[in-house]
Write a structure and sequence with these properties.
InterPro entries: PBP_domain, Phosphate_ABC_transporter. This protein has 273 residues and is an alpha/beta fold. The chain is 34% helix and 21% strand. Strands 1, 2, 3, 4, 6, 7, 8, 9, 11 and 12 form a 10-stranded mixed β-sheet that branches.
């Protein structure tokens, strides 16, 4: 009898383990901490489901993983391409993140003008003393030309559409790399998606006196989920839908994002911008 009871317990635990298999949400570093926060909140309400948000492999990497059935969900910071849609992928916009310009946490500068920012990233200005700061060389950290935040800056920041970025700069390959490089290098400046967590490690600048969360701020990137049209598990779908709930949207707002819901979240293909 004891053996029968024990076998029943083992079978129940094995069944629970299968039902509780984690959902991986892979892809961009943009908004990664927010997706992790959403995952933790979802798991709190649904203890049988664990959301895993691994380090960045980029939007393209996330899309490739989902397309190759290596992960059920991707997090992306760019629209789907027509070829990706044609392959059976769909997207839903979840939230917008303002693009932030940030410096080493010890740099005593609070705000830059558009002109000053262009001077830094073009290489025309190379010392913080020229901008009212300390006598310290400016160390530019940029992203690759295909980066989503850079694309948004080029579309929205005055003077950035045809700005040739200085070659005297470090190229960060992920959002985390950019933040860590700026955080660890005195005099460094970088850019990436804004979040409240970001302000804990670097000095987020105002641009023309506007903080990224202020109304009228200049640019933002849209973060979306992507999945295969013919292959979305029920638990993964529940997590996607959770992002549209009032609780999830309140959490996103508290973390510095602008949640997207209803007709603005396009679940049929190209990400709404």
């Amino acid at each position: 009898m004891k053996a029968l009871v024990m076998a029943s317990i083992v079978l129940s635990l094995a069944t629970a383990a299968v039902e509780a298999r984690p959902i991986q949400v892979v892809g961009t570093g943009d908004g990664m901490e927010l997706v992790r926060a959403l995952g933790a909140a979802f798991t709190s309400d649904n203890p049988d489901t664990v959301i895993l948000v691994p380090p960045s492999i980029g939007s393209g990497g996330g899309i490739a993983a989902v397309g190759g059935r290596k992960a059920p969900l991707a997090r992306v910071a760019r629209p789907l391409k027509p070829t990706e849609e044609a392959s059976g992928l769909v997207a839903r916009a979840m939230f917008r993140l303002p693009s932030a310009i940030y410096t080493h946490p010890d740099l005593a500068i609070e705000s830059l003008s558009h002109e000053q920012l262009i001077g830094i990233y073009s290489g025309a200005v190379n010392n913080w003393a020229a901008l009212g700061g300390p006598d310290l060389r400016i160390k530019v950290v940029r992203r690759e030309d295909t980066d989503s935040t850079l694309a948004v800056l080029r579309r929205s920041m005055p003077g950035w559409d045809d700005l040739e970025l200085t070659t005297r700069s470090k190229i960060a390959v992920t959002t985390q790399d950019s933040v860590e490089s700026v955080k660890s290098t005195l005099g460094a400046i970088g850019f990436g998606p804004f979040s409240r967590v970001l302000e804990e490690s670097v000095n987020v600048l105002k641009i023309e006196g506007l903080h990224p969360t202020d109304q009228g701020y200049f640019s933002a990137v849209t973060v979306s989920y992507v999945w295969r049209r013919d292959d979305l598990r029920d638990d993964a779908k529940a997590f996607v839908d959770y992002g549209q709930s009032p609780k999830a949207q309140a959490l996103l707002s508290a973390l510095g994002a602008v949640p997207i819901a209803g007709d603005d979240a396009d679940a049929t293909g190209t990400v709404a911008q």
